[in-house]
């Protein structure tokens, strides 16, 4: 793997915002799953506030993740994790997430850290960091967070389930109730099966919703 540096993004990285959005959007199309889209302006605001992490190989964009603060710092979310296709399967997402996690614990020491994802890779990484799967009721109830899902193709499922569930799995790290790292719950086979069941049930409902409209 080429040498990659992971750093806290700032104003000098604003020029990468468009490319980051393009890679996120192209990857969502390839995966065929929902993803909350973000504008380059949103990504740039995160960089200016030092709430974004960027991975660069020389001046080439390799990966990205940003931090969002919810409920007056009661929660922080690590979102928009993306690795450029040329740098995948080499452990870069894991390093970016670990960097973001440690940085965010220093910046927001009392905040619970959460994420929602359909990605097995992200579930694996989060599990290794000590997150545990939770129901959406344990996550922030800040409407602005959930409004961010509006650009996801599965938003009608989320609203039809009154924000109680969706295709994404909610995951939480509570700094007070630190999970012992050995308590591993991640089981790729089981999670793959669960994801399939969820997709069949909830996406089946989606067909019904569309049919009813
Ligand atoms: C998901 C993504 C960030 C992973 O990046 P990456 O740098 O290739 O991931 P890593 O190499 O760090 O892999 C981390 C772990 O996940 C596993 N993994 C990677 N891709 C996987 C996949 N598609 N399915 C299941 N597990 C996967 C790896 O085996 C590794 O596990 P290990 O620690 O046991 O070896 C990257 O593929 C990507 O940007 N995808 C498009 C955007 C996306 O899906 N973002 C997540 C939003 S929910």
Automatic annotation (TrEMBL):
Q: What organism does this protein naturally occur in?
A: Aquimarina gracilis
Specify the superkingdom: Bacteria
Protein known as: GNAT family N-acetyltransferase
Where is coiled-coil annotated?
none
Q: Which Pfam family is one of those matched by this entry?
A: Acetyltransf_7
Q: Which residues form the N-acetyltransferase domain?
A: 6-152
